[in-house]
Amino acid sequence: YINGNTIPLTPKEYELLKCLVINKGLVLSRDKLLDKVWNYDYFGDPRTVDTHIKSLRAKLGPAGSRITTLRNKGYCYRGVKN
After folding, report:
1. I want to staple 32 with a disulfide (CB 3.0 to 4.6 A). Which of 6, 28, 41, 53 is the partner?
2. What is the spatial distance between Cα 38 and Cα 13, in angstroms, rounded to a whole number?
């Protein structure tokens, strides 16, 4: 939910967001996210993580900016600033 509104996510988007939130503040590489969300049996393009992050950010609207990209390192959930 964001501002009381349900945000419809695909199962992979949900698992990706959950993984980022659980690891708040930690940078997770594409490979790490593939292992944690898609599991070791994934044989597709690792850039699928980028596509899912882009879609997730779009669905989250302004809250999507909490997911940051660290070039050549991975993704990080920054959470709410106090």
Report:
1. 28
2. 11
